[in-house]
Amino acid sequence: xxxxxxxxxxxxxxxxxxxxxxxxxxxxxxxxxxxxxxxxxxxxxxxxxxxxxxxxxxxxxxxxxxxxxxxxxxxxxxxxxxxxxxxxxxxxxxxxxxxxxxxxxxxxxxxxxxxxxxxxxxxxxxxxxxxxxxxxxxxxxxxxxxxxxxxxxxxxxxxxxxxxxxx
Length: 167
Known about the structure:
Elements: H1 2-22, E1 35-36, H2 42-46, E2 53-55, E3 67-72, H3 75-81, E4 82-84, E5 96-106, E6 108-119, E7 124-134, E8 140-150, E9 157-166
Parallel strand pairs: 7-9
Antiparallel strand pairs: 1-6, 2-4, 3-5, 5-8, 6-7
């Protein structure tokens, strides 16, 4: 009798464990809706049009498509990856995530448009940059970009895409 009770308890514990393990992970989009996110540049964040920041030299290599990008979620990452032409106040990483990168282009690149779209179906961020390139006397150059967006929770990946057009 005791053996049957023990087996019954063991089976019940196993069922409870399986149910608990099968529950879905936290939804990283909880409380958020899919849609276009507002973008701020360094000029917007620091209320100055004379701030120039760029990725430090030697922090990484471009991939085979000529890309290098980072999702920066805290001040330690920012300080390790970014140089600026002046001492900046700390960016409020409680409110913002910074997307920053480099793209190799054939000519002199100018940012025409950038959009950041939260896609909660997957969940991910779709970050699209439209770059105009002056190909007169074209040589390869490195185009740098950035966008400060509302703070992203952990678990949301960033998908970068580029559309390059001649000026």
